[in-house]
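Here is an idea for our session: we take a single protein and study its fold together. Once you have written the record down, we can walk along the chain together.
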Amino acid sequence: MFNPPNRDCEHVADLQFRPSLGIVVQKVLVPPSLKVHFNELDRYLAVYLAQATPNSRMTARQKLTRLTIQQFHELSTDVYDELVRRKNIIEVIPFLPVRNEFHPKRNQARQKLATLPITRFEDLSGDVHFELGRRYPEFKEDPLGSTTRPPVTTFDFGLR
């Protein structure tokens, strides 16, 4: 039985011939949901990101670089969904509901997100936000072409 791919999880390439360069350029179209995830995490983490020590979570962030596009998109979606659940003060939901179209292990991982203390959830959210910005640098730019916040220096002077 053939299952069509989930178009929201994969990147679609748009090949264009550039005669002036004499080459074919591949433009990758990013699922719009990832930009929403980035913007919401950016707002949620504003204070956290301003206070974060550069390079403090490099080991965790390196692990995210090894995820496939689909694995990372699923993680980003799950963290975003958990953020929305935590921000919903009108209706208290103890954890993300089970979705039949997801693998049982993914549903279990989604429910485990609810058990993370705020600091751990901020760390995970910050790592996902960082990886979204690394994979899709265009997310860091506003329509006028400037970055959303001043770039953080990568120097570590050992001051703690």
Summary: The first helix runs from residue 32 to 44. Helices lie at 32-44, 46-51, 58-65, 69-87, 104-112, 118-135.
